[in-house]
Amino acid sequence: MDSFTIIPNVVKLLPLLFICVQFIVKFNLIGSSQAELMPAAVDELQPVGLTEYRMVEADSHDARRRLAPFQLCLLCKCCAATNCSTMPCCFGIDCQLPNKPYGVCAFVPKKCDCISCAV
């Protein structure tokens, strides 16, 4: 191959490369705005802490029972804008986790200061 056949191929790929770079830059800038990066100053307590991941094994048949959501009241650390305290939190199982494979679930806190998780 001589240099004259390589140059037209490169010229054809340059616009495609330019469009791809613009697409990547555009959607990265839209996805992270300053408002999303700065936390809101709210005095409401929010649960914080480690998330525990466990694998869930699926059965081979589809005749499964429908169960109510499982919730449990345990101690966790809850923080507001100015302070943190340990109090009972309502924990639930979450299986729709971002950046985790199907079947990985987490036992995550849902709300702080629970009396009963049945509510």
From TrEMBL:
Query: Which positions fall inside the DUF7866 domain?
Result: 69-118
Query: InterPro entries annotated for this entry?
Result: DUF7866
Superkingdom assignment = Eukaryota
**The protein's name:** DUF7866 domain-containing protein
Q: Which organism is it from?
A: Carpinus fangiana
